[in-house]
Design a protein that fits this description.
The chain is of the alpha/beta class and 216 residues long. 48% of the residues lie in helices and 16% in strands. It has 10 helices and 8 strands. The chain is globular and about 55 Å long. The protein starts with a strand and ends with a helix.
Amino acid sequence: MKYELAVFDLDGTILDTLTDLKNSLNYALEHFSMAPRTLDETRAFVGNGIRKLIERGVQSGTPVEKIDEVEKVFNSHYAVHCVDNTKPYDGIHELVKALRAKSIKTAVVSNKGDYAVQTLCEKYFNGLFDFCVGAREGVRKKPFPDSVNEVIRVLGADRSKTVYIGDSDVDIETAKNAGVRCISVTWGFRDIPFLEKNGATDLVSDMDTLLKVLTE
């Protein structure tokens, strides 16, 4: 089946952002004399947006008011340092260009703050995506389908010919809620057993296979 629209998750799907997320999380935690988190801990915390990352990262029993403060420090730091170590996964540029050459529209929907999504997409994929959107006030985050629905509407795509590509259980649920197919990539922040346990039915492990699935 040839798709009209391919919507991508960002963290763990098109960009390896983990080190910068960990560094900004630890900067914020240490600012308030809290214990830092490891890369693997950070990996387990991501997927549901910045607020959840902070809630999972702070020490147990932290008051809501303090979590708010940690989140503000994180956002200030991450806004400046979100491109320090982040890099695109090998082959993703070629994949997106190949899709566009076949007249398939491309988009990004992420639970990352919209400020960071716009910065990262402009720096690493300037002009390669037709629409990029992150978490915003008043819009429900994934796994709610709101942002995917918005992309479908704005780009005038056929929902039955739309596919969502991601690396997590949140992405699987988002696609289900939006009524579109989900393809789960295995190079991201979740391993194959976890993805299968959480309902993944279409798994791909490399860009060449993903391109074939999306275009044939």
